[in-house]
Amino acid sequence: MMTAADGPDIAATPHILVVDDDERLRALLTRYLSDNGFLVTAAADPEEARAHLAALAFDLLVVDVMMPGEDGLSLTRDLRRGSTVPILMLTAMGDPEARIRGLEAGADDYLPKPFEPRELLLRITGILRRVAERPTAPPDDPTPAPNPLRFGPLTLDLRRETLLRDGEPLHLTTTETQLLMVLAGQPGVVFSREALAEVTGTAANPRGVDVQVTRLRRKLEPDPRTPRYLHTVRGRGYLLRPD
Q1: For residues 167 and 175, what is the distance between their CA atoms, to the nearest angstrom?
Q2: Which of 2, 36, 110, 128 could staple 102 via S-S, CB 3.0–4.6 A?
Q3: What ranges are recorded for DNA binding (predicted)?
């Protein structure tokens, strides 16, 4: 089902795909998001979601974790092999380990059930805002980073925002991409946790940057426990140091 709120131009309206096997919740989310100005398509399972994704362009996915058959984690992992579309996961499992599994699968954010509709709306608008805001380097940077930037088997194209490992695409979440682009824009320059939190939209909880850095290291580093490229500068922040 697809609906659009009255008023905004459809071409400029963010398009959200809701994937949830609960028919009642699916209908409630569709109606609520539509009433708040979004274009909404709904799917009852990952198979239906893939059919929509093959035919339509989406700005964000809201995916339930617990579904019969293939679950939301599996769908998210599969999508991350070829897509950077933002994903917000919903789950009845609110423990930290469940949240970590969702983030490791490639989700951009994670909202435990039950939740207030207003919080869902704030999470969605926050993700979309971060996607729209391109990360920028500090204005006093006199030396732009080389492009492409190479470190080990990795090649980062700063203009296209693409990352290759040994010539093969390495897929990052939207937040991971934003974080890497800021650090790579000034190799060797230390960025504070607070500055990076502003870019990634976690200013209310700068420690969230640490989680994103950990995830990024798992994808970039030969051994994430002893980083070669993405370094912590104690008391100051983080820096990227290519070869």
Answers
A1: 22
A2: 110
A3: 146-242
